[in-house]
Design a protein that fits this description.
This protein is an alpha/beta fold and about 625 residues long. The chain contains 25 helices and 16 strands. Strand 7, helix 15 and strand 8 (about 350) form a beta-alpha-beta unit. The chain is globular.
Length: about 625
């Protein structure tokens, strides 16, 4: 048992609870993966086509090199890849739309519980969109929200926020024809192109993926990030705690899981309601303990310092501790298995989004108009469930890890004295060789957290600053890399810079839509340096990605000019054409490309060499 546990995860607290899961006989994601392997070779290589009823078809070689319609392996792989990009871009962008609509409802009186939380950012964004800020805050918020909603179906030709990049980078995008014309438009066109008989050239199909991803990165996700800041405040540097040990034995424990802060922020407010606190004490609890999971947890961690129980592969384990009264979810990355896991304990699973209903859960529909009352209702149910906890089934690991979080671009500037120039100077001088954004998910195909943590350790040792989002950032938090004392693991130059500022060598920048903070960071650095983004000594990495959203993220990184390394092979291996296009040929067009390397040591070498080449080209 111990060997299997250690093979599955490197996190100490996850190991403790995973061992309990085995003893309890509770099914987990790793058990289901074992039963699903070996996987279908055709699906894994992307050469299975189910696009129409003339099939399904798969390319097997010999005399089966084309499907019924005549498509070959290259076209099938390209279409399947574009399908993934469209799915990921749609998920992020629909999240963005929800946040913008919450701003609009708050501004027009329909959702009074959602006032503007950062007036300075609101006005800055309004000016960027050419909106008059002379009226009331509510009027400005309404106009900005309407302008952003227009971008989902815009006919103006370009998204506003992509103009933040240097003009020379913009020319690269235009020449490559990946400038997004509208958010929904690019996703709809992507789905149109993969219909049988439309996109019949694999090159054109793949390139539409880049354009759709750019509508996510510089459109939907950027809106989600910026307008979440407008609503709830721009994150500032703070300290909190991370891992399964943040659960409390004498409290009503409620996990907030998903991606949209519109609900979770209201739950934080409701948990402080005197009536809710009194109700918790009446049933014998010391209080209510809210903990985060995945990206909605990251949003709360950044802004409110709410402790984070874990990342993607910890969601079942949080229930298996036996100490969780309720898990409240919205959408994305939520295992359909959660109600079945919860049935083995006493946990209530609340689903809250009409987009994300879940069999076996209790459905409490939440909208901006009713979020506070519905939040109180769910917390009351969680409190009433506290006496049902079976103390014999409770196992809460000890020693949560302190983590420094909240590194928005604005917070980074503040720490540097108001400008990114000290960071640029440190890069030019060589004290910091460059920067890598480690982002993305967990994937049970890779030892939980291993890919993220080991790559980050190797990079900082080589004086490369690491910025992180999503589940990657929580992996580093659990491993102690988000503590200022982690500079002891860094190289001499990075240690000196971070030590002088009192910050860790790995910076937590937020949730997955907050990858757009990384886009803003590199865009501003490039503008300050007078170079294109693709000329900077920077790179991206997604060591444990699993989600179609991560495919969209990876493509908008590369599309923007940031070469990106993947630790899990995308399902493109069945097409040498598509594989070569993404790992080689695309560099001639976008000045950036993909690598695939699961081994952290080899991945670090690839990224370090890339950064040194960029430095040399700039004469650094």
């Amino acid at each position: 048992m111990d060997q299997k546990v250690e093979e599955r995860t490197i996190d100490r607290t996850s190991q403790i609870v995973l061992r309990k899961a085995m003893e309890d006989g509770t099914d987990t994601v790793w058990d289901r993966l074992e039963r699903q392997t070996p996987h279908c070779k055709f699906c894994s290589e992307g050469v299975s086509c189910q696009r129409c009823a003339m099939g399904p078809c798969r390319i097997m070689g010999g005399d089966r090199t084309r499907g019924v319609c005549g498509n070959d392996a290259h076209l099938i792989v390209a279409r399947n890849l574009l399908d993934w990009v469209a799915m990921g871009a749609a998920a992020h962008s629909d999240h963005g739309r929800d946040v913008v609509e919450a701003v609009l409802k708050g501004a027009t009186g329909g959702a009074p519980d959602y006032p503007v939380g950062d007036v300075e950012k609101l006005n800055r964004l309004a000016k960027e969109y050419g909106i008059d800020t002379g009226g009331t805050t509510q009027q400005t918020a309404e106009r900005l929200a309407l302008a952003m909603l227009d971008e989902f179906g815009t006919v103006r030709g370009e998204l506003q926020m992509i103009k933040r990049v240097p003009a020379a980078s913009l020319e690269v995008y235009k020449k490559a024809d990946i400038m997004p014309r509208g958010i929904d438009r690019e996703v709809v066109e992507a789905m149109h192109r993969i219909h049988m008989g439309v996109g019949n050239d694999p090159y054109g199909v793949v390139m539409q993926g880049f354009r759709a991803s750019m509508s996510d990165g510089w459109g939907g996700s950027m809106q989600a990030m910026e307008m979440s800041d407008v609503l709830f405040g721009t994150p500032e540097i703070k300290t909190s705690r991370v891992n399964l040990g943040v659960l409390k034995k004498d409290h009503v424990n409620v996990a907030l899981h998903g991606h949209n802060p519109v609900l979770s922020e209201m739950l934080v407010k409701a948990a402080a309601d005197p009536d809710i606190v009194a109700r918790a004490k009446k049933v014998g609890a010391a209080g209510i303990n809210l903990v985060g999971l995945c990206c909605t947890g990251n949003e709360l961690l950044m802004r409110k310092g709410v402790p984070q129980a874990g990342n993607h592969l910890d969601q079942e384990l949080t229930i298996i501790t036996g100490a969780l009264e309720a898990m409240i979810v919205d959408y994305q990355c939520i295992f359909p298995s959660l109600p079945f896991t919860a049935a083995c304990y006493h946990t209530i699973i609340f689903s809250t989004s009409p987009k994300g209903t879940m069999a076996g859960s209790e459905y409490v529909e939440v909208s901006p108009e009713n979020a506070y009352q519905q939040s109180k209702l769910m917390l009351e149910r969680a409190i009433d469930n506290y006496p049902n906890r079976n103390e014999q089934k409770v196992l809460i690991p000890d020693e949560p890890v302190e983590s420094m979080v909240g590194f928005s671009v604005e917070a980074i500037k503040k720490a540097l004295g108001g400008s990114l120039k000290p960071l640029l100077d440190a890069i030019v001088s060589g004290k910091i060789r460059g920067a890598v954004g480690i982002v993305g998910c967990n994937n049970p195909h890779i030892r939980h957290d291993y890919g993220h943590v080991e790559l980050a350790k190797r990079l900082i040792k080589r004086d490369i600053l690491v910025v992180e989002t999503g589940c990657a950032s929580i992996a580093s938090g659990k491993a102690g890399l988000l503590k200022p004392s982690a500079i002891e693991m860094a190289g001499k130059g990075l240690k000196e810079v971070c030590g002088s500022l009192g910050i860790p060598p790995v910076l937590h920048m937020g949730s997955c839509v907050d990858n757009t903070r990384i886009l803003n960071l590199v865009a501003e650095l490039a503008s300050m340096a007078g170079v294109r983004i693709d000329q900077l000594p920077v790179a991206g990495a997604a060591p444990e990605w699993y989600s179609p959203k991560a495919v969209s993220i990876a493509e908008y990184f590369v599309g923007t000019g940031v070469s990106t390394l993947l630790g899990v092979m995308p399902r493109i291996g069945g097409s040498p054409f598509v594989t070569k296009m993404l790992t080689d040929d695309i560099e001639h067009l976008l000045n950036a490309k993909f690598w695939v390397e699961p081994d952290p040591s080899k991945a670090c070498a690839i990224l370090f060499d890339h950064i040194e080449q960029k430095r040399q080209a700039l004469g650094m």
